[in-house]
Amino acid sequence: MDFTDKVVVVTGASRGIGQSTAVRFLRANAHVVANIPSIDSGTHRELVEGWVKAEQLDSSRVTIKVANVDRPQEVNAMFDELQAEFSQIDVLVNNAGINRDHTIGKMTDDEWNAVIDVNLSGTFFCSRAAAKLLRDGGSIVNISSMVAHTGNFGVANYAASKAGVLGLSKTLALELAGRGITVNAVCPGFINTAMVESMPDHVIDRIVEQIPLGRRGETDDIAQTIVFLASESARYITGQSIGVNGGLHMH
After folding, report:
1. pLDDT for the residue numbered 203
2. Any residues with CB less than 8 A from the CB of 237 and at least 6 apart, and which?
């Protein structure tokens, strides 16, 4: 897949799925706009610069932009800058996300709101701002989650936010179809991220036992799916949620 001369915006690009996605697009010759949060932006900038160097990628095709996706003023300013620099963009990957896990009886208002604001409202704010810049025939890929379909213990805020992303994705797919813009959601399952690594080994083992393919997913498994959905090979796919979970959830 070749993304030469195409501009790809990846939110939450400093690590995890965002990092792997940015790397995949860079290897496909895209120019990647790596969004990082304004909170602790220095650390996130160092992370991006670190993986660009470690992967021996062309740093001239990486533009770092600072904006908290849950703050519409910052999002709008970021896309105004991109319009001035690139005129148009080709792909938006709404990856930025957080979790604040607690059972419903212990979950605070702030924990609920923080996750909804970043995961759901942030996806909306970025999509709204990007829609004006997306070239006809471009793509939006939103990161949802398997728990949007299944739910899970202690993640009411996260599951609700990711289910909301599915509804938003379908609506955007309808609204932007007239311009040939595709909008799809990827629903990762049990993926090998820092959050998973922090879990006790016995919990990890118990979950892996339930996965038909017998292993945790890697962030690159998700990245490859995202790149496919943004490619010419997926021009007739829109309004869909794609599960990448090793068979842990089938529907």
Report:
1. 87
2. 182, 184, 229
User: Residue 220 corresponds to which amino acid?
Assistant: D
Q: Is the pTM of this model over 0.90?
A: yes
pLDDT at 3: 99
The superfamily (CATH) of domain 7-191+222-242 is NAD(P)-binding Rossmann-like Domain (3.40.50.720)
Task: Give catalytic status of residue 236 as yes or no.
Answer: no
Considering just the CA atoms, what is the radius of gyration of the chain in Å?
Answer: 17
Residue ranges, the chain, pLDDT below 70: none
Look at residue 197 in the predicted model and tell me its pLDDT.
Answer: 81
Q: What is the pLDDT of residue 178?
A: 99
Domain borders along the chain are 7-191+222-242
Q: Give Cα separations from 113 to 1, 107, 233 (angstroms).
A: 38, 10, 37
pLDDT of 66 reads 98
Answer whether 101's CB lies under 8 Å from 158's CB. yes
Measure the CA–CA gap between 22 and 12, rounded to whole angstroms: 10
- Of 158, 169, 216, 219, the catalytic one is 158
